[in-house]
Amino acid sequence: MATATNEQTQALLDQVREALAQAIGADAIVSAEASYDFPVLVLKRENIIAALRFFKEQLGYNFLTTLCGLHYPDQKGKEMGVMYQLHNMPENKRIRLKIFFPESDAEVPTATVVWPTANWMERQEFDFFGIRFKGHPNLKRILNMDDITFFPMRKEFPLEDQTRDDKDDSMFGR
Amino acid sequence: MSDTIINSDIAQPEEKVYSTLNLGPTHPATHGIFQNILKMDGEIIMEAVPTIGYIHRAFEKLAERRPFNQITPITDRLNYCSSPINNMGWHMTVEKLIGAELPKRVEYLRVIVMELARIADHIICNSVIGVDTGALSGFLYVFQWREYIYEIYEEICGARLTTNIGRIGGFERQWSDKVWQKIEHFLKEFPKVNKEFEKLLVRNRIFMDRTINCGPLKPEMALEYGFTGPNLRAAGVDYDVRVMNPYSSYQDFDFVVPIGTQGDVYDRFMVRQQEMWESMSIIQQAMKNIDRSQKGEFHGEVPEFYLPEKAEVYNNMEALIYHFKIVMGETDVPVGEVYHSVEGGNGELGFYLVSDGGRTPYRLHFRRPCFIYYQAYPEMIKGGMLSDAILTMSSMNVIAGELDA
Asked: In the predicted model, what is the mean pLDDT of residues B342-348?
């Protein structure tokens, strides 16, 4: 049972998409595609908790592998995103769910109501991206200091001191 | 007579007085920089609030400005007790993205290194459990062998702790005869030492009394809290990435996934102990099926990522171009997103890599196992004694470098 083949991933994608469309409505799914060995579903933000619950309780995706923030400043109206990765351990199926939303309204319902493990994962993404998880029991910074005022993983935040002019690496991409 | 005592007029105080105890950030018993603010009722822990991030180094942000081959040294510093596993995990993530296929021999070499790293990781964790229960000599005794594993790394790549071992596409150089001799020696001598270590602790009455039923973990709770690795297996869930989603030819090897029943400190200790035996068996199987001569392949055909030999660079136009492109980070990579996970020393170590085709990752997210499961720690130690909390932490194998990334 090595890495899932393309056909298996595609079959899993079709199966998951159909089940999800029946459960929470086809218009909740923005797009669905296979990316390497993962089916990736982009959902609407307001449906994400219902979808996570559906996957956990009906389809056996009992394990939240990871969750992370995304930032695409060039996608107007969908600058920020969150990626959830679920694992159905008994059947060994893995899927990835994504939601996108505007930077000006970076608020997402919390997944801690489905998995307690989302607690620190969401705190981390709040800390680095400034995504506010609505209903989170303890939404505080986790790795950075409490009193910093910026969100360092956002793309506009420079890694190095931008006032320096002794280093020019414009030749080398980012 | 008894009536007078029961109907005493003296009012008993109703409210309990709790004391606050700062355990950490730098406490010798926590083996790293962890702070827990404990609310204590005498010696019983009522509540624990962990603070983390003391050695946060912004790896995810740093990775967004580094070419792929320069990210390997960052991964060294995640779980620094088993750096080679992190390095290999990262190489395999990039290889998955670019669709590279490696020769079997390279994959077997990787398996050998990763299993050595797992043994080194488990040696530290288990012997530290011994230390925290009061048995320092076992720790010092097996530590020599962890040191010996570092010598093997040194022979392969020149580094010991933060190894930066291997490259995208294989190993940097051929394994010398000395490496094979050292591994042979290790496989011959370490079983005796490990057996002796087990004799010291496994049926030791003091150790058993101290660890059985200490910091227990139920499988349901373990899954809800995202536990992986030996901790999850000790709770009775047989999830192992090497078996579920085999990478680097793990499907060719015959090994057992040990599981526990109670999920307590003793079970976690025993699962790790058994895993060391399995790792030795895996190394032995790999050694049996491998060409140990200097002619064997030690890297795959990935010219755009694998640095060519210097002699080639000076005499061959193409090699010179590839050398330049790799060093300057001008190699094209496909656009896409990929997730790859390996069974690290303490759980599923995952790399979520988003590439926009540029020279650096657009986004790189590390799924760090102990960051995810350490949040269950306050719940696990609630209602227990302070000394049990210390033992629970060391048995969970929480590594500060990985926790804080």
From this structure: 93
Q: What is the dihedral of CA B107, B59, A153, A137, to 10 degrees?
A: 90
Class at the top of the CATH hierarchy for domain B49-404: mainly alpha
Which helix (H) or strand (E) segment holds residue B148: the answer is: helix B136-157
- Give B85-111 pLDDT, tens digit per residue: 999 999 999 999 999 999 999 999 999
| Chain B residues with CB-CB distance to A174 below 8 A | 64-65, 358-360
B86: its two tokens: 């992190």
| DSSP assignment letter at B237 | -
The structural domains of chain B, with segments of one domain joined by +, span 49-404
Mean pLDDT computed over B304-326? 92
Domain that holds residue A12: 6-118
Is-contact B322 B329, C-beta < 8 A? no
Q: What is the pLDDT of residue A7?
A: 86
Please report, as a single letter, which amino acid is at residue B250. Answer: Y
- A97: in domain: yes
Residues 53-82 of A with CB under 8 A from B: 62-66, 68, 70-71
- Does A171 fall in a domain? no
List CB contacts (< 8 A) between B348 and chain A: 65
Tally of domains in chain A: 1
- Provide the pLDDT for residue A6: 81
- Sign of the C-alpha dihedral, residues A138, A143, A147, A151? negative
Q: Is the pLDDT of residue A3 over 70?
A: no
DSSP B26: B
Is B350 a residue whose pLDDT tops 50?
Answer: yes
For B377, name the nearest residue in chain A, comparing CA atoms only. A117
Task: Locate B288 and state its tokens.
Answer: 């049996």
Quick check: A67 pLDDT over 50? yes
Cβ within 8 Å, pair A143-B56: yes
Please state the φ and ψ torsions of residue B358, each to the nearest 5 degrees: -80, 180
- What is the strand order of the sheet B19-23 is part of? B19-23, B35-41, B44-51
Distance CA B234, CA B218 (A): 9
Query: B338 and A36: CB-CB below 8 Å?
Result: yes
Residue pair B119/B279 in contact (Cβ under 8 Å)? The answer is yes
Is A11 exposed, middle or buried, given 0-12, 13-18 or 19+ CB atoms closer than 10 A?
middle
Closest C-alpha among B244, B226, B240, B247 to residue B271: B240
| Token pair 């010598």 in the structure block, residue | B151
Kindly give the pairing relationship between strand B44-51 and strand B35-41.
antiparallel
Residues of B in contact with A35 (CB under 8 A): 336-338
Share the mean pLDDT of chain A: 89
- Among A117, A145, A174, the residue with its CB nearest the CB of B225 is A117
Mean pLDDT check: name the lowest of A108-122, B8-22, B79-93, B271-285. Answer: B8-22
Q: What is the pLDDT of residues B52-98, one digit of tens each?
A: 999 999 999 999 888 898 999 999 999 999 999 999 999 999 999 99
A128 falls within a domain: no
CATH of residue A20's domain is 3.30.460.80
